[in-house]
């Protein structure tokens, strides 16, 4: 499953739901996760893992073209940590 369509097809077949309902569910799940992370909360996907928001501090970097130092602003970034069940499933 590399594309959204392939994921929808697989989920629709496993759950015996229509592809339209499955796509609506998948879109709603994505919206819920985005909203949770935007509020600074975490989103747990049982058996898969946890999405959280991590603070990245400001730092000094280098412009690769000129080598000049540049200031990179602090930011928030999404982070994923896999569950033990997922790690075990892929052999890690």
Give an overview of the whole structure.
The structure is a single chain. The chain is an alpha+beta fold. The chain folds into 2 domains: 1-39; 42-92, HU Protein, Chain A (Irregular), CATH 4.10.520. Helix content is 41%, strand content 29%. The strands form 2 sheets. It has a 3-stranded antiparallel sheet. A two-stranded antiparallel sheet has the order 3-4. A hairpin with a 6-residue loop joins strand 3 and strand 4. Helix 1 crosses helix 2. The mean pLDDT is 95.
What is the count of β-strands?
Answer: 5
Alpha-carbon Rg, integer: 19 Å
Give the end-to-end Cα distance, rounded to a whole number of Å. 20 Å
What is the structural class? Answer: alpha+beta
Summarize the main sheet: 3 strands, antiparallel
- Principal-axis shape equals elongated
Biggest sheet, spatial arrangement of strands: 1-2-5
**H/E series:** HHEEEEEH
- Give the number of helices: 3
Report the CATH topology name of the largest domain: HU Protein, Chain A
| Mean pLDDT reading | 95
CATH class of the largest domain: Few Secondary Structures
- The low-pLDDT segments are none
CATH homologous superfamily grouping of the largest domain = IHF-like DNA-binding proteins
| Proportion in helices | 40-55%
Taken as a percent bin, the fraction of beta residues is 25-35%
- The tally of structural domains comes to 2
């Amino acid at each position: 499953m590399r594309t959204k369509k392939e994921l929808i097809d697989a989920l629709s077949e496993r759950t015996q739901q229509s592809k339209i309902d499955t796509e609506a569910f998948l879109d709603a799940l994505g919206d819920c996760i985005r909203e949770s992370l935007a509020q600074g909360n975490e989103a747990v996907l049982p058996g898969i893992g946890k999405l959280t928001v991590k603070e990245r501090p400001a730092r000094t970097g280098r412009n690769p073209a000129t080598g000049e130092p540049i200031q990179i602003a602090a930011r928030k970034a999404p982070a994923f940590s896999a569950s033990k069940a997922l790690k075990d499933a892929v052999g890690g």
